[in-house]
Amino acid sequence: MDLDMAQVRAFVRAAEELHFGRAAGTLAISQQGLSKRIARLECLLGTELFQRDGNGVRLTEAGQRFLPPARQTVAAADAAVAAAVGKDRPLRIDVWGHLYAPMRTLAQVAGQTGELVLGHGRDLPSVTDALLHGDIDAAFGRVHPPLHTGLVHRLVRLEPVDAVLSADHPLAAEPALRPDQLRGSTLWAPGALDRLDFLHQFADRFDIQDRAPSVNLGLTHFLAELAQDSHRFSLLPADVPLPEVPGLCSVPLVNPTPLYAWSLLWRSGNRHPGLNSLTAACAAQAGQSRWLEYDPARDWLTEPPANAPRSKQH
To answer: pTM (2 decimals)?
Structure first.
């Protein structure tokens, strides 16, 4: 029995999403086209893979048995294509943590790594899935546990973090602030804090009791809301360019300075030659721009790195 890879890939995506519309969107085909591929696969196998009902779809027992080897088949096909294409295939890379502008860092090394194709990840879980399924080769953002055992990551940059405040905040005129001076202010977060690991850990470490979630509609909207309340603050990496929002100011944090850890992430065993170029370019830029300097006496990290260079100054 010869399997059609397009049909197997359609099945895997539909099994992961359990929603034919979303699965079709990730494959850039119509929902009708995806349904036809799965129907042909079921006809070839002589069994139903999905149980369709009024509440959506779910895998049948046959579908549950078929899914693990089907995933392996798709991964093997992608690996075979990559091996055949070799250096000519662009490195597919994705980012997450978009509010903190991860492309600022990648843009500084992109010219040294060959052709890059950027994906459209939303968060670390979605990027993790894309890596494990072979949809992308690498990703860039802030890594935090739990991390899948099939993935490898490398620290690229430790970026100082500033407090962003309303200009009417009582501390707005200070030249610098200690994190504990923000107690009594409200941490304004671009979403539920339990999904924002860095902000959550900062609030716990420095005893910020007042916390309020917003909706992430982009940096300008988020900061405009922040500027309207004289008790709110948030955190942004120091090099993030601030939009022109009236009534907003940024103040450095010291004693300790929080550092935001940016990392490269990829699937163990991925041998795309562009990965070596990308990691080498990041290491060279880190040395040139002093991206990885860390002084435990004056800096704060959620998880101190074992191999970051230590220095008395940034």
So the answer is: 0.70
